[in-house]
Specification:
This protein is an alpha/beta fold and 158 residues long. Helices cover 36% and strands 16% of the residues. The chain has helices at 3-11, 24-29, 44-47, 61-70, 91-94, 102-105, 119-129, 149-157; strands at 54-55, 76-79, 85-89, 107-108, 112-113, 133-137, 143-148. The strands form two sheets. The chain has a four-stranded mixed beta sheet. A three-stranded mixed beta sheet has the order 5-6-7. Strand 5 (112-113), helix 7 (119-129) and strand 6 form a beta-alpha-beta unit.
Length: 158
């Protein structure tokens, strides 16, 4: 819809108006509201943990490791000022506890998934590859959160 049409709808009293130029698939990939037959199917965006620790490229691993452990995590996502995922520090990188910058030890360009991926499909994918966590980002690469297979399994038991 055009910006003009969006503003007109707002002037008519509509409160949730979106001026969105990209396509339907990108809308879903951003975790935007979904309607229709499969709207209630659980998706990874709804289970992604947004409280996963983050750090910047230039932060010392020692300080990051301390903060990550205090928060009860064993991983840290390296992001820029816009929240775009640049890398990831796993427990092995965080155990070095050095003054080395995160950029020098991070695993660059980690795989990411969009919020609209169906939980069942994601857990099957993770089972096949024996992985327990997956990063969820927007189309622009901004961090949504960390999806944990254990959270999905716990949710399905309820």
């Amino acid at each position: 819809m055009s910006p003009r049409a969006a503003w007109r709808l707002e002037s008519l009293g509509f409160r949730k108006v979106y001026d969105y130029a990209a396509g339907k698939a990108d809308w879903f990939a951003r975790g935007r509201p979904i309607e229709g037959e499969r709207a209630e199917v659980p998706r990874v965006g709804s289970l992604a943990r947004s409280d996963v620790p983050t750090c910047r490229l230039d932060e010392a691993v020692s300080g990051v490791a301390e903060r990550v452990r205090a928060a009860g995590w064993d991983t840290c996502i390296v992001v820029n000022d816009e929240g775009v995922v640049l890398g990831r520090l796993f427990a092995s990188e965080l155990s070095s506890d050095s003054s080395t910058a995160a950029e020098d030890v991070m695993r660059s360009g980690p795989s990411t998934f969009r919020p609209n991926v169906v939980v069942e499909e994601m857990t099957r994918f993770m089972d096949e590859r024996d992985i327990s966590t997956a990063l969820v980002t927007t189309s622009e690469g901004r961090l949504v959160g960390l999806f944990r297979r254990s959270d999905a399994e716990e949710t399905s038991r309820k």
